UniProtKB/TrEMBL annotation:
<dbReference type="Pfam" id="PF01740">
    <property type="entry name" value="STAS"/>
</dbReference>
<protein>
    <submittedName>
        <fullName>STAS domain-containing protein</fullName>
    </submittedName>
</protein>
<dbReference type="InterPro" id="IPR036513">
    <property type="entry name" value="STAS_dom_sf"/>
</dbReference>
<dbReference type="InterPro" id="IPR002645">
    <property type="entry name" value="STAS_dom"/>
</dbReference>
<feature type="domain" description="STAS">
    <location>
        <begin position="13"/>
        <end position="108"/>
    </location>
</feature>
Amino acid sequence: MDGLSARLEAPDPGTVIVRLDGELDLATRDQLVLAVRAVLPTFHPQTLELDLAGVSVLDSAGIGALVSCWKLAQDTGCALRLSNPRPLAYAQLRLTGLLDVFALAGTG
């Protein structure tokens, strides 16, 4: 699957979940950052969850996009957490030390 798609869910007024499907890499990183830039001022969530269950590729550019999203969320007082990373993505996040940065809502 080429590209990246995102589905938004708002299970309660303070939480927005972005369910990602596809490849989070150099070609798609800007899509994610732009989506988060749109979600934060529109929904004003207390928690933004990025569900990685459908992410088949996560490269260094994708990890950089996750960090950018975390910074954007922090700037608005929103907590950003990741959920459901696949085993390889989980290992990459652990290797980079980012498991300590992101609240992880599920394991892969």
